[in-house]
What does this fold into?
Amino acid sequence: MGEVITLRGGNFGAEQTEAYVTIAGTSPTNSSYYTWQDNLIMLKVPELGESGLVYVYVNGKKSNGVLFSNYAALPMPIEGENFGFEPRIISVNPVTGTTGTLITITGNNFGSSRENGGVFFPWEFESPSLNPLMAAPEFIEASETEFGYELWSDREIRVRLPDGAASGNIEVRTARGKSRPAVIDVSGRPGTKTFREKRSYTISYSVDVKILEASRPNTLYLWLPKPVSSPSQRNITLLSRSTEPFMENYRGISLFKLDNVSAGYSEQITLSYRVDVYGQETSLRAQSIRPDENPAFAVYMHSSNLIPSADPQIKKQAETIIGRERNSYNKAKLIYDWFLKQMEITESLPPAYTVAESLEEKKADPYLAALLYCAMARASGLPCIPASGVLVNQNRQTIRHYWAEFWINGFGWVPVDPAMGAGAVPASFIEMEDHANFYFGCLDSRRITLSRGEPNLSQMESRGRVVSHPRSYSIQNIWEEAAGGLESYSSLWGDIIITGIYIQ
It folds into this structure.
């Protein structure tokens, strides 16, 4: 701190005027600048300066980031017997990578198992404020559901760089505290991903249960989804709930348990959350995409009852569409363009319609369109998952909706909404001017995601009677399970209710 650093580059401007530099999110005072030329800036490191990225802002535009390390904040070897129990990072290897890169973190006090610990990477969004990096830095955790953690021991962690991570400081957080930061450089990606137009929602949803006939012992299990945490949907905060869950979080779903209920018993379980949603825009250079070498993502190419990618007709149609194309991004675009030209997208189809029948009849609603797109992508060798949730219209009402995401090596998940891209936009929803181009690679911030992928839940009891609710706001195989002497009951699952919206 207090030393002078030199930035060399171009297009800084001959004078500083309203331009400025940020160092790890901190903007130096005007007196800190010694020289400002079009290709040279010299300034003093501000007090309390941290290691992180250096950016130059000129006329509202931001330069590329360059890594800066504050010597005083670098990890030092542990000496003596009296040192803290918080996690400590000694080294990170490699220090440069792209989405999906396996990173080895060595140190100590990580804990023999991960438990509630995690590795947190910097996350960056486009802020409408004049100086966005003056705000406290935000982080994104490595994804457990996407095989983010390969090893966790007291002295070593092997973790994959998560989708949405940016260059900057990473931290290890455990019940003992958080480590001092270490620097990581996210570079070499075949494109850019931008998060903007933040909207904060408060939502509420519930299930009403009434017991009609029952004898003891009996149990009723209810699986209530939680808003999904992802690069574009963050800061999930539980505001209130009427009942404590039996299991807090299993694959993004809370399990509630009602034991030994009697005839005439009734209960309403209500959840309320706050969630921040960002619009997402992607720009990819198809020629820079490398073949996917991550075996973990092969699971997103498997055929299932929900996504029958092994169906002969689906495979045949996919082969016809992609031809000799081998580039992942181009495959996804060819399938999307075929949807827009060949499929008739309607608001809803009879529940008995299957994915295979949807292809045969060339008709789909948003639910079937998302599943058929995933099936055809997987049949083409492209990892793809469905997503579900609700759209929020201009009247603050919610509409159940479904879309998909496909994986690009070194870049991450790319959203695609074949239904809305084809123009099947609810009348009360704000429509994009060029919906066909927008909904391939981009998403609006007027939707809330309740599930990504196929949350495959297991029965709690071998003789339990399972109930599912297809085409609901969460794609999950189990919603209810009755066991024992619970002979008859009724359940009413309410829609997602918007109780507040804040737009930034």
